[in-house]
Each structure stands twice: as C-alpha cells, then as structure tokens.
Design goal:
Layout (H helix, E strand, L loop, with lengths): L2 E7 L7 H11 L2 E8 L6 H10 L4 E5 L4 H11 L4 E5 L3 E3 L3 H5 L9 E3 L2 E4 L11 E5 L20
Parallel strand pairs: 1-2, 1-4, 2-3
Antiparallel strand pairs: 4-8, 5-7, 6-8
Length: about 150
C-alpha cells in the first residue's frame, strides 16, 4: 500500500524541513509527496526541487492560501485511498507507517501517528500535523478561508 502525503509550506526551511522530508520518505511508503507552498522565499522550494532531482516523487503546487485552504487544495490532489498530512516541522518516528497501519480498518477514519520530534508547538492544528486519513471521508471537504482551530491543553 502506497499513500500520498500532503505537506503545506510557507518559508519552512527552518527549523527542520530537510529532516522532515527525509523522515517521510524513510518511514512512509510514499506514492507522492504533494507540497502546497504559499510562495516561500527562504529556500523551501529550492530544497524540495533538489530532492526531486534526486528522484523523489515530489509535486510542488504554489498557491496563496492560508493553512485551511492549503490543506483543502492538498486533499483535492490526493489519489490514494489513504493519505497523510505531515507538517514541515515534524520529524516522524522511526517506522511511523508500520506502527499505525494495523489500525487501518473499515470504521476508522484517521490515525495520528507518533513523532520523533516536533519543533513548533502543534496547538491550532487540530491533529493534522502527522495524521493518516481515509481520503473518501474528506475528499469533497470545503474549508472556509477564515477557519482557525484552537486547541487548549488543560
């Protein structure tokens, strides 16, 4: 089973884009890494292009979207029955996909996997920083431009 991975970026070189991309290709059976980039100016796109030249299957789409609309654009490009959102500041735990694939069942819609390291506080991401999702459940999802999520840890 191969899956598409969606990553949204905007000036994502730091803190760990290189490590994040490598963790994706080392720990997920990637069909395509679909990158939705909001016109980065810090070398993000150039690094991704470097990986493409090395043979990694990366598609870069540039759109002026905020986080919610960028995720919607990524979902619309997915072609596999399951896909993963992996944020550019997440380094996946070793064997990420192997650890969670056993939970893929007909009545399961999403599985959040473990991370090795996350450089930026994930609050406000609604568990989309490293999650495997059943594509059919979100394929026609429309995310409002103003959509913001706030997660409060009590």
């Amino acid at each position: 089973m191969k899956i598409d991975v969606v990553m949204i970026t905007k000036n994502s070189m730091f803190p760990c884009l290189r490590e994040s991309v490598e963790s994706i290709f080392n720990n997920i059976p990637v069909n395509r890494l679909i990158v939705i980039d909001a016109f980065s100016k810090d070398g993000t796109v150039e690094l991704l292009e470097e990986y493409k030249r090395k043979g990694l299957n990366i598609e870069i789409h540039q759109f002026p979207y905020k986080r919610g609309k960028a995720r919607e654009a990524g979902i619309n490009l997915v072609r596999t029955p399951w896909f993963a959102f992996v944020d550019s500041d997440v380094i996946l735990a070793k064997n990420w996909f192997n650890e969670i694939k056993g939970y893929i069942k007909p009545r399961i819609g999403a599985i959040e996997g473990p991370v090795s390291n996350q450089k930026i506080d994930p609050r406000g991401r609604a568990y989309t920083n490293c999650t495997l999702i059943k594509t059919s459940l979100v394929k026609d999802l429309k995310i409002p431009e103003e959509m913001t999520v706030l997660r409060i840890n009590i």
